[in-house]
Amino acid sequence: MTESPYPNQQPNPNPTPAASASMPAAGGAAAAAERGRSPSAAEAAAPPAAGTPTAPSTADPRTAVPLADEPLPGRAGAYQRRRRGRRLVAKSANTTSPTTPEQRLLLLDTWQRSGLPAGDFAALVGMSKHTLYAWKQRFDQHGPGGLVDQPRGARPGSRLPELTQRTIVMLKKAHPDWGCQKISDMLLRGPALPASAAAVARVLHEAGYELEEVPTRPHPDKVRHFERARPNQLWQTDLFTFVLKRQNRRVYLVAFMDDHSRFIVGYGLHASQSTALVLEVLRAALTSHGVPEEILTDNGSQYVTWRGTSAFHKELDKRGIRQVVAAPRRPQTLGKIERFWGTLWRECVESAVFLDLGDAQRRIGLFIDHYNFQRPHQGIDGLVPADRFFQAAPQVRQTLQARVAAQALELARHGLPKAPFYLTGQVGDQPFSLHAEGERVFLTGAQGARQEIDLVPPAAPRNRAEAEWPQPVCPQGQVVGLGTAAANAEPPAPGTSALDDLVPPQDEADEEGGLP
Questions:
Q1: Residues 31, 54: contact at Cβ < 8 Å?
Q2: How far is the C-alpha of 253 from the C-alpha of 247, rounded, in Å?
Q3: Of 61, 112, 147, 263, which sits with the fewest C-beta atoms within 10 Å of its C-beta?
Q4: What is the pTM of this model?
Q5: Where are the domains of the chain?
Q6: Partners of 252 in the β-ladder
Q7: Using an 8 Å Cβ cutoff, are 454 and 402 in contact?
């Protein structure tokens, strides 16, 4: 039983063979019109039967009647609409293969000979007229070679000029340790050939270079720099120790440095590293150069105490100064004053021979004057520290610089220049000579034997020599007795005290029998 494509019409339950055979002929035109296309000549010539429903035969697959729940061909579904959107379908087997350049040339020649418009000719050969126009344009520009398919996308390889590529390879061969960024910078600064680091890497990859993974060691922490914007914003302080060669005695030097200008605002030298020395130097520096906002210190016992508050911190609190303490085992934080200790050692203390503690105080003070007012500093663009520290008060700087001795560095290194000394004579029948070599005096006998002797100068010439020393400009902090004979005296013997002289002696009888 065949269902009718017309829902309002009941199908014939008993169709006769004749009626079934006549249905295609009688209703061909109507069925063709129903499917939305023009009837063919055979369908238009067949007369429809009166009063009989028309339906196409199922013998012809092109006119097969769909089921009731399927949409009619050529129109939107009457019962179920097709969903829109993207979907994956099987690749069609009847896809047209691309034409060869010879076929394109033949089609263009046929089109030109036919004289037809592009749209009509394209419909005959089954292609778009725009394709014909594109082929014709390529043929007119490049000839038959223009009909060959060109590779799409960017041209593979580097787009840099040949000169730039050769220069990159030459630089890499000459300097194998150079990276892509450095080669790019050298190209721009030298021959002015612009090439990014990525372009350099592409050229080297084409030349046969490849990236090599090499295990590396952990890099040390990078050096960090800091500097305050103006003088007296931050001071740094630290202690330095060395040995007086002639006395074989260890002394301790404390200094305060301005962070912005590297200007030494105060110093002090003593035989002990006491808090009292640090406080005296601090008070002398504050009196001469004003009060800073902060002072940077390390974790030394002179500055920090593990319990309570140190005397140094209390002194800063009274004056409204903030103490900044560096991290333990981190000397780089006080790198500026640490660098000054190195300069002081190499340029003065290492080669100098100090007579005593007082001589060391004067000569180190003269070297600090040379450092502040005469020695250019690379860390501050070749200026001397006084140029930066007294930038707002040039008159003060000129006044202090006029007081600095012109030969301050030579005096700090070698002391006061001495007149040459040479004496020769004869004792009995034996000749002798006496001459000085620096701080040492040698006696040469008749046989040429040399012997070092000590000469004790008289008191009056020594006082005159001391009066010739120029006084240092840098403020010096001194503890009571510093630089005197009491400071240079030997320490008391164990079990003795200075109070022993104040106790009256007792009789032996009192010591044996006691008081009555």
A1: yes
A2: 17
A3: 61
A4: 0.47
A5: 1-75, 101-147, 162-206, 234-288+337-414, 422-455
A6: 241, 270
A7: no
